[in-house]
Amino acid sequence: MTDVQARTDTANPQGEPTRPGAVAPRRAVLAGAGALGATCLLAACGTSGGSSGSNPSGSDFQNNPAPAGSKGADAGFPAGGGSKGGDSGGATALAAVADVPKGGGIIQGDLVITQPSEGTFKAFSKVCTHAGCDVNKVDDGVISCPCHGSTFSIEDGSPKGGPATKGLPETKVKVDGDNIVKA
User: Fold this and answer.
1) Residue 19 lies in a domain
2) pLDDT tens profile 101-132
3) Which residues on adjacent β-strands are paired with residue 139?
4) In a domain, 99, yes or no
5) 130: in domain
6) Does a structural domain hold residue 173?
7) Nearest Cα to Cα of residue 114 among 74, 142, 84
8) Which of 101, 91, 57 is nearest to 171 (CA)?
């Protein structure tokens, strides 16, 4: 029998010499380009922040909400700036007083605005505290969420039924002429 040994200095089919442990530069470049392309494709297929219509809570729902009791950047300041007393300073109207029925309410923007008793107005977040769905109805003294049946009081936003155990966060409001504005 003859002992056969492989030679390491022979040419490969592309005409490049082979060395143990060395990769042909052309192959390395092509493999790297392929890996980069696959990475870009996978990143493009990931979750995006855009509104694809699949979020039952709407495009403004966030998985990372502000801490409880937080009211955002303008917390503690009236909408028109300046001091807390006196006129609203031209604050933006949230709703017209005439549009909010006594013993009921309306959903306006990000808020549910209610009038539990004559001349008393309250505002609560429209986002249900159970699963983040938007409430969709104010009727018979309760605010209702369509997702799992939670109901909340129009007086203080507290849960009245369903799986929700926390009340809707309140936003202080006041009457300014014929309008309801942030207090």
Assistant:
1) no
2) 999 999 999 999 999 999 999 999 999 999 99
3) 142
4) yes
5) yes
6) yes
7) 142
8) 91
What is the separation of C-alpha 144 from the centre of its chain, rounded to a whole number of angstroms?
A: 20
**21 token code pair:** 């442990």
Which pLDDT value is given to residue 40? Answer: 60
Domain containing 128 — which CATH number? 2.102.10.10
What is the 8-class DSSP label of residue 99? G
Q: Which helix (H) or strand (E) holds 176?
A: strand 173-176
Query: For residue 175, what are the domain limits?
Result: 95-182
The Cα–Cα gap between 113 and 94 comes to 8
Asked whether 178 and 160 are in contact (CB, 8 A), the reply is: no
Quick check: helix, strand or coil at residue 98? helix
pTM: 0.53
Q: What is the pLDDT of residues 1-17, one digit of tens each?
A: 566 665 555 555 555 55
Looking at the structure of the chain, the number of domains it has is: 1
Do 141 and 151 form a contact (C-beta atoms < 8 A)?
A: no
DSSP string of 5-71, one letter each residue: ---SSSB-TTSPBP-TT---HHHHHHHHHHHHHHHHHHHHTS--SS--S--TT-TT--SSPPPTT--
